[in-house]
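Escalation from tier 1.

The customer reports that the assembly of two entities below gives different structure tokens on two consecutive runs. Tier 1 could not reproduce it. I'm attaching the input and our single run for tier 2 to review.
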Amino acid sequence: MAQPDTLLEVELERDEGSEIAALFEAEKKAFWALRGQLLDQYEGQYVAIHQGRVVDHDTDKLKLGLRVYRRFGYQPIYVQLVSRQGLPVKWLASPQRLEQ
Amino acid sequence: MTMVRYNYNQQLEPPAPFIYATVTTPDPGAGAARAERIPMQLDIGAALTVIPQRLASELGLIKFSEVGVGGFRRDPEVEDSFLVRLQIHDWEIEAVEVILGDDSYGLLGRDVLNQFLLTLNGPELHFTIQRPAESAAS
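Tier 1 run:
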């Protein structure tokens, strides 16, 4: 059989969005897996999870977020409150008319 | 102290206070941050700020956290949140945690509005907004 003259390979464009989403999901999963241990040390504080471990903590969620993005760059990092209760709840209480 | 005056938006019924704000990623120094200027409704019934869904892809926003979000006669549901920087006229707000909404405009919640002095003049359909010096410094 004749040999091909040229060897070609197709490379698909990387789906950066889903890679970032997958990394974020992994950080989130790590938080919930670690939560039991985190309660002893960080209860009532927010922790930042990066590459599966706690990289910083603070009682102020926004300050913590800014600090970790400055330190690690704008990349998937999961920030959450360490608490025995569920997630903190915020209310959007304004009803809207359907016809708008 | 700078004061800005807006007329109410009268496309909504009843008319409502709206303002323009520019949304960017939280760390513009890190790279080419994209920015988007959007209309935002002043909503003192909202505990947090909402931006239009389309901004997540347009600005390349990365998820930051999760929050439980409840509404009028609606039980709380888990929503992804994002950390953004907001600019309203000359006023910079370095970090705001936001969720995504379905409307073409955003909602400015009390997390942001409580940093401002607002005077609503309903009968004349306008409002003024200014930022006290101590809020601007924080």
